[in-house]
Structures are given as C-alpha cells and as structure tokens.
Amino acid sequence: xxxxxxxxxxxxxxxxxxxxxxxxxxxxxxxxxxxxxxxxxxxxxxxxxxxxxxxxxxxxxxxxxxxxxxxxxxxxxxxxxxxxxxxxxxxxxxxxxxxxxxxxxxxxxxxxxxxxxxxxxxxxxxxxxxxxxxxxxxxxxxxxxxxxxxxxxxxxxxxxxxxxxxxxxxxxxxxxxxxxxxxxxxxxxxxxxxxxxxxxxxxxxxxx
Length: 208
Hints:
With 208 residues, the chain is an alpha/beta fold. It has eight helices and five strands; from the N terminus they run αααβαβαβαββαα.
C-alpha cells in the first residue's frame, strides 16, 4: 500500500541506510577484481576532486578559519561524520569549534539564535541531502553570515557559489557517499593552517 511504502521510506530516512540497491560491484565475483575495481575508484575520487577544486578556494577557507572567533560545524547523518572529523582536526591545531547536533532542534535553535558576524559556519551535506541542513543554510544566508558549504555538486541544495562552496567527489560503487576525498580535503585545509600559522601551532603543542 501507499502508506506502507511511505512508512518504509520514512524509516529508511531516519536510520540513514546508505547502501544502493543496485550497486556497481554486484556483478563482480573475483576477489582480486573487486579489489582492483574499488582501488581505482578510490584513486579517481581523489584525483577528480583535486582537479576541480581551485587551490585559492582552500587557501581562502583556511584564512577565514584563522580569522573566525568561533567555528560552528553542521552535518547530518553521513555528513555528521565529516563534521566530527573536521572538529577533531581543528581542535588538534588549537581552533575553537563545535559540531551542532542537527537532530536536536533545541541545540540548533540555540546556536542560530546566538549567531555572530565574527564566526564561521561550515556546513557539510551529501546525498540524500537533509532538509534540516538545507533549512539551516537558508537561514544563515538570510542573515548574511560567514558560511562555507562542503558538498558534492553544483546542483546540491546547499551550493552557494564558487567562492563559498567546496565541491568534493563522493561517488561510491556501493554506498551513496564516500568520505575518502572529503577527509583528504579537510586534511589539506589543516595542512595549510599549520604551515601558515606555525607559531600558533607550536604554542598549542606546548600546552598539550
């Protein structure tokens, strides 16, 4: 029935199942063939990501991170994993930041009510795009805050423009999203931050 299908779709959305029904590796039976095919796809994800990203954009984002009073990070479901990775990396080099739980309406509301023009808002969203995240980006845009979105396509609902959106290849033969290239780009930004702020990094290392 329509009700049953709607209920199944709703449950799938809640638990965040991220596996394609008809994935690309389905026809492969040889273990070595599976290994080779997947390895090449991983390499291609990284290569295509860095070929399409403007290096100046990454340096610009790093500069905005340095200037921000506080960094707020948003991500839902699989995007939340990327957000937490970003949080960890930033904390290890001494930047004040926090991941906002998009499933907690009160936490989101509290964070948005206390927005600050001096802060930076980093928002991750990959298919299936979360309506929570889309609404958050729309609000941040409406009050003209400092936003950087990290997503998979110019067709993404959180794409802003070439100066404020990092596009990363998240295609995966089995899952809807791979975070391999996402993690790599995050680490690239961290590398820029460390090399452009060695004194800050050295001071922080002494404290820990």
